[in-house]
Write a structure and sequence with these properties.
Bound molecules: zinc ion
Number of domains: 1
Number of strands: 7
Helix content: 10-25%
CATH class: Alpha Beta
Oligomer: single chain
Number of helices: 3
Order of helices and strands: EHEEHEHEEE
Largest sheet: 7 strands, mixed
Distance between the termini: 24 Å
Strand order of the largest sheet: 1-7-6-5-4-2-3
Strand content: 35-45%
Structural class: alpha/beta
Shape: globular
Radius of gyration: 14 Å
Length: about 140
């Protein structure tokens, strides 16, 4: 299993600047192939307490999954921010993560970390760390 996630510097900068602008958790989809992020799709955070939780707008997720079936980029994971925490998965994240192999990017301040949701993960029993390979 490839535990490296490829992403471009410009996409990292986009996620970090979206994170820095908001006191609420921001979130969005990672679109691409296998372990390569080709694009991000910022989504509304529709959680009722968005300062400390996130829930991807289901309509945006539905649109992305439909586009993938039509030959577009696949949804390989998502990103969200911890505006007042660190860039590590929370217990809440682990509780809401199905062990489906999806990539999770977590942003805090200017930190960005990558994880994969798996059975028996190293963190909270759900997440394995992933190396983020940032292309210039
Ligand atoms: Zn979180």
């Amino acid at each position: 299993m490839d535990m490296t996630l490829q992403i471009s510097r410009s996409l990292v900068d986009q996620i970090n600047s979206e994170t820095m602008r908001s006191r609420l958790e921001v979130c969005g989809l990672l679109l691409g192939q296998r372990s390569q992020v080709e694009a991000i799709a910022p989504c509304a955070n529709v959680h009722t307490t968005p300062a400390t939780h996130f829930e991807l707008d289901p309509a945006a997720l539905f649109r992305a999954l439909r586009a993938a079936r039509g030959g577009g980029s696949r949804v390989i994971g998502h990103y969200h921010s911890h505006p007042s925490g660190d860039a590590l998965p929370s217990i809440t994240d682990a509780a809401s993560a199905p062990p489906d192999g999806a990539f999770w990017l977590i942003a805090a301040s200017s930190d960005l970390t990558a994880w994969r949701a798996v059975h028996d993960g190293a963190v909270h029993g759900r997440f394995d760390p992933v190396t983020l390979a940032i292309a210039p």
